[in-house]
Amino acid sequence: MSIEINDIPALARGCAILGTGGGGDVRTGSLAAIRAIRAYGEVPLVRLADLPDDALVVPLSGIGAPTVSHEMIHGEDEPKRIVEEVERLFGRRPSAIMSCEIGGANGVAPVAWAARLGLPLLDADGMGRAFPEVQMVSMYVAGLPAELVIMSDIVGNVVTIRPVDGLWSERLARAVCVAAGSHALMADYVLTAARARGAVIEGTVTRALEVGRATEGAADPLRALQDRLGAARLITGKLTDVERRTTGGFVRGTATIEGTGAERGRRLTLELQNENLVALENGEVRAMVPDLITVVDTETAAAVQTEGLRYGQRVSVLAWPCDALWRTPKGLETAGPRAFGYDLDYVPVEELTAHG
Predict the structure, then answer these.
(1) Which domains does the chain have, with CATH numbers?
(2) In this predicted model, what pLDDT tens digit does every residue of 197-247 receive, in sequence order?
(3) Phi and psi dihedrals of 33, rounded to 5?
(4) 0.70 cut: is pTM over it?
(5) FRET label pair with 58: which of 46, 47, 236, 327, CA 20 to 30 Å apart?
Protein backbone atom coordinates (compact mmCIF):
# COMPACT_ATOMS: atom_id res chain seq x y z
CA MET A 1 0.00 0.00 0.00
CA SER A 2 1.10 3.55 -0.68
CA ILE A 3 -0.08 6.95 0.49
CA GLU A 4 -1.38 8.86 -2.53
CA ILE A 5 -2.49 12.47 -2.94
CA ASN A 6 -6.14 11.40 -2.76
CA ASP A 7 -5.50 9.87 0.68
CA ILE A 8 -4.26 13.09 2.26
CA PRO A 9 -7.64 14.75 3.04
CA ALA A 10 -8.90 11.65 4.89
CA LEU A 11 -5.56 11.19 6.66
CA ALA A 12 -5.62 14.83 7.76
CA ARG A 13 -9.18 14.57 9.10
CA GLY A 14 -8.33 11.42 11.00
CA CYS A 15 -5.10 12.80 12.42
CA ALA A 16 -6.90 15.97 13.54
CA ILE A 17 -9.44 13.85 15.43
CA LEU A 18 -6.76 11.66 17.02
CA GLY A 19 -4.75 14.78 17.91
CA THR A 20 -7.17 15.64 20.77
CA GLY A 21 -6.65 19.32 20.01
CA GLY A 22 -2.87 19.18 19.59
CA GLY A 23 -0.15 17.90 17.32
CA GLY A 24 -0.27 21.01 15.14
CA ASP A 25 -2.66 22.25 12.46
CA VAL A 26 -3.18 19.57 9.80
CA ARG A 27 -3.61 22.14 7.01
CA THR A 28 0.08 22.96 6.73
CA GLY A 29 1.02 19.28 6.99
CA SER A 30 -1.50 18.41 4.29
CA LEU A 31 -0.18 21.03 1.87
CA ALA A 32 3.37 19.85 2.47
CA ALA A 33 2.37 16.20 1.92
CA ILE A 34 0.52 16.94 -1.33
CA ARG A 35 3.41 19.04 -2.65
CA ALA A 36 5.97 16.36 -1.74
CA ILE A 37 3.99 13.52 -3.34
CA ARG A 38 3.64 15.55 -6.55
CA ALA A 39 7.37 16.17 -6.59
CA TYR A 40 8.71 12.82 -5.39
CA GLY A 41 5.91 10.26 -5.84
CA GLU A 42 3.67 8.16 -3.61
CA VAL A 43 4.93 7.04 -0.20
CA PRO A 44 5.00 3.29 0.51
CA LEU A 45 3.26 2.40 3.77
CA VAL A 46 5.04 -0.52 5.44
CA ARG A 47 4.42 -2.68 8.50
CA LEU A 48 7.03 -3.63 11.05
CA ALA A 49 6.66 -7.21 9.80
CA ASP A 50 7.89 -6.01 6.39
CA LEU A 51 11.23 -4.79 7.79
CA PRO A 52 14.32 -6.83 8.69
CA ASP A 53 15.35 -6.80 12.35
CA ASP A 54 18.31 -4.47 11.76
CA ALA A 55 16.33 -1.86 9.77
CA LEU A 56 16.64 1.63 11.27
CA VAL A 57 13.37 3.45 12.01
CA VAL A 58 13.44 7.21 12.61
CA PRO A 59 10.45 8.66 14.52
CA LEU A 60 9.98 12.31 13.49
CA SER A 61 7.75 14.99 14.96
CA GLY A 62 7.46 18.70 15.40
CA ILE A 63 8.03 19.87 18.96
CA GLY A 64 6.75 23.12 20.42
CA ALA A 65 3.65 25.26 20.79
CA PRO A 66 0.96 24.67 18.12
CA THR A 67 0.18 28.39 18.02
CA VAL A 68 3.74 29.11 16.88
CA SER A 69 3.59 26.53 14.07
CA HIS A 70 1.04 28.72 12.24
CA GLU A 71 3.69 31.40 11.71
CA MET A 72 6.92 29.37 11.79
CA ILE A 73 6.41 26.58 9.27
CA HIS A 74 8.95 23.76 8.92
CA GLY A 75 11.35 24.17 6.01
CA GLU A 76 12.23 21.36 3.64
CA ASP A 77 15.75 20.86 5.00
CA GLU A 78 15.09 19.93 8.65
CA PRO A 79 14.25 16.25 8.01
CA LYS A 80 17.19 15.96 5.62
CA ARG A 81 19.58 17.36 8.23
CA ILE A 82 18.25 14.97 10.88
CA VAL A 83 18.60 11.93 8.61
CA GLU A 84 22.12 13.00 7.66
CA GLU A 85 22.97 13.10 11.36
CA VAL A 86 21.43 9.63 11.83
CA GLU A 87 23.57 8.35 8.96
CA ARG A 88 26.68 9.93 10.46
CA LEU A 89 26.03 8.40 13.89
CA PHE A 90 24.92 4.94 12.76
CA GLY A 91 26.96 4.61 9.59
CA ARG A 92 23.98 3.56 7.48
CA ARG A 93 20.80 4.92 5.95
CA PRO A 94 17.46 4.58 7.76
CA SER A 95 14.91 2.13 6.31
CA ALA A 96 11.72 3.99 7.30
CA ILE A 97 10.27 7.14 8.81
CA MET A 98 7.68 6.86 11.58
CA SER A 99 5.33 9.46 12.98
CA CYS A 100 6.17 9.93 16.64
CA GLU A 101 2.55 10.94 17.25
CA ILE A 102 -0.30 10.21 14.86
CA GLY A 103 -2.28 13.21 16.10
CA GLY A 104 -2.49 16.52 14.25
CA ALA A 105 0.10 17.73 11.76
CA ASN A 106 2.61 15.33 13.29
CA GLY A 107 0.58 12.52 11.75
CA VAL A 108 0.34 14.07 8.27
CA ALA A 109 3.68 15.82 7.81
CA PRO A 110 5.72 12.57 8.00
CA VAL A 111 4.23 11.70 4.59
CA ALA A 112 5.98 14.78 3.21
CA TRP A 113 9.21 14.03 5.06
CA ALA A 114 9.23 10.42 3.86
CA ALA A 115 8.53 11.47 0.25
CA ARG A 116 11.36 14.00 0.21
CA LEU A 117 13.77 11.52 1.77
CA GLY A 118 12.76 8.68 -0.55
CA LEU A 119 11.87 6.44 2.40
CA PRO A 120 8.71 4.46 3.27
CA LEU A 121 6.42 5.43 6.14
CA LEU A 122 5.87 2.93 8.95
CA ASP A 123 2.22 2.15 9.76
CA ALA A 124 2.74 2.89 13.44
CA ASP A 125 3.44 5.68 15.89
CA GLY A 126 4.49 6.20 19.48
CA MET A 127 1.22 7.45 21.01
CA GLY A 128 -1.96 6.47 19.16
CA ARG A 129 -2.95 10.13 19.71
CA ALA A 130 -1.01 13.31 20.60
CA PHE A 131 0.77 14.17 23.85
CA PRO A 132 2.74 17.33 24.67
CA GLU A 133 5.94 15.95 26.22
CA VAL A 134 8.88 14.06 24.73
CA GLN A 135 8.86 11.14 27.17
CA MET A 136 5.13 10.51 26.62
CA VAL A 137 5.70 7.83 24.00
CA SER A 138 5.12 4.10 23.91
CA MET A 139 8.87 3.43 23.60
CA TYR A 140 9.44 5.02 27.01
CA VAL A 141 6.55 3.09 28.53
CA ALA A 142 7.95 -0.12 27.03
CA GLY A 143 11.22 0.50 28.87
CA LEU A 144 13.49 1.42 25.96
CA PRO A 145 16.29 3.76 27.07
CA ALA A 146 16.12 7.31 25.70
CA GLU A 147 19.62 7.20 24.25
CA LEU A 148 19.42 9.79 21.50
CA VAL A 149 17.44 12.88 20.48
CA ILE A 150 18.31 14.79 17.30
CA MET A 151 16.76 18.20 16.65
CA SER A 152 16.88 20.71 13.81
CA ASP A 153 15.31 24.15 13.51
CA ILE A 154 14.34 26.38 10.65
CA VAL A 155 17.61 28.34 10.91
CA GLY A 156 19.69 25.22 10.25
CA ASN A 157 20.94 24.32 13.72
CA VAL A 158 21.31 20.61 14.48
CA VAL A 159 21.47 19.51 18.11
CA THR A 160 22.24 15.97 19.27
CA ILE A 161 21.26 15.11 22.84
CA ARG A 162 22.35 12.04 24.80
CA PRO A 163 19.88 12.13 27.73
CA VAL A 164 20.22 9.88 30.77
CA ASP A 165 16.51 9.04 30.67
CA GLY A 166 13.15 10.00 29.14
CA LEU A 167 12.43 12.79 31.61
CA TRP A 168 15.75 14.44 30.84
CA SER A 169 15.04 14.08 27.13
CA GLU A 170 11.95 16.26 27.66
CA ARG A 171 13.78 18.87 29.75
CA LEU A 172 16.69 19.21 27.35
CA ALA A 173 14.67 19.00 24.12
CA ARG A 174 12.19 21.56 25.46
CA ALA A 175 15.01 23.98 26.29
CA VAL A 176 16.39 23.64 22.75
CA CYS A 177 12.87 24.08 21.35
CA VAL A 178 12.30 27.29 23.32
CA ALA A 179 15.67 28.64 22.16
CA ALA A 180 14.61 27.90 18.57
CA GLY A 181 11.45 29.99 18.98
CA SER A 182 9.21 27.25 20.47
CA HIS A 183 9.22 25.23 17.23
CA ALA A 184 11.63 22.59 15.91
CA LEU A 185 11.76 19.17 14.26
CA MET A 186 12.85 16.22 16.38
CA ALA A 187 13.85 12.58 16.05
CA ASP A 188 13.78 10.61 19.27
CA TYR A 189 14.20 6.91 19.97
CA VAL A 190 15.99 6.11 16.70
CA LEU A 191 15.62 2.32 16.86
CA THR A 192 15.85 -0.89 14.91
CA ALA A 193 12.77 -2.76 13.75
CA ALA A 194 13.59 -5.51 16.25
CA ARG A 195 13.47 -3.07 19.17
CA ALA A 196 10.37 -1.36 17.79
CA ARG A 197 8.33 -4.57 17.91
CA GLY A 198 6.12 -4.39 20.99
CA ALA A 199 7.33 -0.85 21.74
CA VAL A 200 5.32 1.12 19.16
CA ILE A 201 1.58 1.27 18.47
CA GLU A 202 1.03 -0.44 15.14
CA GLY A 203 -1.62 0.26 12.50
CA THR A 204 -2.24 3.87 13.48
CA VAL A 205 -1.76 5.42 10.02
CA THR A 206 -4.37 3.00 8.70
CA ARG A 207 -6.64 3.87 11.65
CA ALA A 208 -6.30 7.59 10.97
CA LEU A 209 -7.33 6.99 7.36
CA GLU A 210 -10.36 4.98 8.49
CA VAL A 211 -11.40 7.66 10.99
CA GLY A 212 -11.00 10.36 8.35
CA ARG A 213 -13.13 8.43 5.87
CA ALA A 214 -15.91 7.75 8.39
CA THR A 215 -17.66 11.07 7.70
CA GLU A 216 -17.35 11.01 3.89
CA GLY A 217 -20.86 11.18 2.45
CA ALA A 218 -22.47 10.57 5.86
CA ALA A 219 -25.96 12.01 6.40
CA ASP A 220 -25.02 12.59 10.05
CA PRO A 221 -21.22 13.11 10.19
CA LEU A 222 -21.15 13.46 13.98
CA ARG A 223 -22.96 10.16 14.52
CA ALA A 224 -20.79 8.43 11.91
CA LEU A 225 -17.65 9.63 13.65
CA GLN A 226 -18.93 8.62 17.09
CA ASP A 227 -19.69 5.14 15.83
CA ARG A 228 -16.27 4.74 14.19
CA LEU A 229 -14.47 5.86 17.35
CA GLY A 230 -16.77 4.18 19.86
CA ALA A 231 -16.91 7.61 21.52
CA ALA A 232 -19.19 9.16 24.10
CA ARG A 233 -20.55 12.64 23.37
CA LEU A 234 -19.90 14.75 26.46
CA ILE A 235 -21.81 17.86 25.33
CA THR A 236 -23.11 19.74 22.31
CA GLY A 237 -23.19 23.51 22.62
CA LYS A 238 -21.50 26.84 22.09
CA LEU A 239 -17.98 27.85 23.03
CA THR A 240 -18.40 30.70 25.50
CA ASP A 241 -14.95 31.23 26.98
CA VAL A 242 -11.37 30.50 25.90
CA GLU A 243 -8.23 31.32 27.86
CA ARG A 244 -4.94 30.48 26.16
CA ARG A 245 -1.30 31.38 26.71
CA THR A 246 1.96 30.21 25.17
CA THR A 247 4.62 29.53 27.78
CA GLY A 248 7.59 27.21 28.15
CA GLY A 249 7.08 25.76 24.68
CA PHE A 250 3.43 24.80 25.34
CA VAL A 251 -0.03 26.23 24.83
CA ARG A 252 -1.90 26.13 28.15
CA GLY A 253 -5.39 27.24 29.09
CA THR A 254 -9.07 26.37 29.43
CA ALA A 255 -12.16 26.34 27.22
CA THR A 256 -15.80 26.40 28.29
CA ILE A 257 -18.73 25.00 26.29
CA GLU A 258 -22.30 25.77 27.33
CA GLY A 259 -25.00 23.36 26.20
CA THR A 260 -27.61 24.39 23.66
CA GLY A 261 -31.02 22.99 22.73
CA ALA A 262 -31.88 19.99 24.89
CA GLU A 263 -28.58 20.46 26.75
CA ARG A 264 -29.19 24.07 27.73
CA GLY A 265 -28.05 24.71 31.31
CA ARG A 266 -25.08 22.34 31.13
CA ARG A 267 -21.49 23.60 31.12
CA LEU A 268 -18.34 21.65 30.28
CA THR A 269 -14.83 22.96 30.93
CA LEU A 270 -11.74 21.61 29.18
CA GLU A 271 -8.24 21.86 30.64
CA LEU A 272 -5.58 22.29 27.92
CA GLN A 273 -1.85 21.74 27.54
CA ASN A 274 -1.45 21.65 23.75
CA GLU A 275 -4.04 18.83 23.92
CA ASN A 276 -7.39 18.52 25.73
CA LEU A 277 -6.43 16.86 29.01
CA VAL A 278 -9.45 16.88 31.34
CA ALA A 279 -13.18 17.52 30.84
CA LEU A 280 -15.19 18.66 33.86
CA GLU A 281 -18.90 19.31 34.32
CA ASN A 282 -19.98 21.02 37.55
CA GLY A 283 -16.68 20.03 39.10
CA GLU A 284 -17.14 16.37 38.17
CA VAL A 285 -14.68 14.71 35.81
CA ARG A 286 -16.26 13.37 32.62
CA ALA A 287 -13.05 12.28 30.90
CA MET A 288 -9.30 12.55 31.47
CA VAL A 289 -5.93 11.69 29.97
CA PRO A 290 -4.71 9.32 28.72
CA ASP A 291 -8.17 8.77 27.17
CA LEU A 292 -8.85 10.91 24.11
CA ILE A 293 -10.96 14.10 24.25
CA THR A 294 -11.64 15.95 21.01
CA VAL A 295 -13.68 19.05 20.14
CA VAL A 296 -15.43 18.83 16.77
CA ASP A 297 -17.66 21.09 14.71
CA THR A 298 -21.21 19.89 15.39
CA GLU A 299 -22.33 20.08 11.75
CA THR A 300 -19.29 18.68 9.94
CA ALA A 301 -17.60 16.62 12.71
CA ALA A 302 -14.28 18.23 11.71
CA ALA A 303 -11.84 18.51 14.61
CA VAL A 304 -11.17 21.91 16.15
CA GLN A 305 -7.59 22.23 17.42
CA THR A 306 -6.92 24.04 20.70
CA GLU A 307 -5.34 26.97 18.85
CA GLY A 308 -8.48 27.23 16.67
CA LEU A 309 -11.02 27.49 19.50
CA ARG A 310 -13.05 30.70 19.18
CA TYR A 311 -15.96 32.26 21.04
CA GLY A 312 -19.33 31.35 19.55
CA GLN A 313 -18.29 28.15 17.76
CA ARG A 314 -20.95 25.43 17.75
CA VAL A 315 -19.14 22.32 18.85
CA SER A 316 -19.49 18.87 20.34
CA VAL A 317 -16.99 17.17 22.63
CA LEU A 318 -16.22 13.48 22.11
CA ALA A 319 -14.25 11.16 24.37
CA TRP A 320 -13.14 7.55 23.86
CA PRO A 321 -10.65 5.00 25.26
CA CYS A 322 -6.91 5.22 24.68
CA ASP A 323 -4.65 2.35 23.64
CA ALA A 324 -4.37 -0.29 26.38
CA LEU A 325 -0.66 0.51 26.80
CA TRP A 326 -1.54 3.85 28.42
CA ARG A 327 -3.69 2.14 31.05
CA THR A 328 -0.78 0.11 32.41
CA PRO A 329 0.89 1.38 35.63
CA LYS A 330 3.85 2.77 33.64
CA GLY A 331 1.51 4.30 31.06
CA LEU A 332 -0.50 6.12 33.72
CA GLU A 333 2.65 7.23 35.50
CA THR A 334 3.88 8.69 32.21
CA ALA A 335 0.73 10.29 30.79
CA GLY A 336 -2.08 9.90 33.34
CA PRO A 337 -3.69 12.91 35.06
CA ARG A 338 -1.05 13.13 37.80
CA ALA A 339 1.70 13.41 35.18
CA PHE A 340 0.12 16.77 34.26
CA GLY A 341 -0.31 17.95 37.84
CA TYR A 342 -3.95 16.96 38.36
CA ASP A 343 -4.76 15.40 41.74
CA LEU A 344 -6.99 12.78 40.15
CA ASP A 345 -7.05 9.01 40.17
CA TYR A 346 -7.52 7.74 36.64
CA VAL A 347 -10.97 6.36 35.81
CA PRO A 348 -11.62 4.99 32.29
CA VAL A 349 -13.87 7.16 30.15
CA GLU A 350 -16.33 4.32 29.60
CA GLU A 351 -16.97 4.22 33.36
CA LEU A 352 -17.23 8.00 33.71
CA THR A 353 -19.79 8.21 30.87
CA ALA A 354 -21.72 5.00 31.54
CA HIS A 355 -24.66 6.85 33.11
CA GLY A 356 -24.87 10.01 31.09
Answers:
(1) 2-205 (3.40.1610.10), 219-352 (2.40.390.10)
(2) 999 999 999 999 999 999 998 999 999 999 999 999 999 999 999 887 765
(3) -65, -45
(4) yes
(5) 327
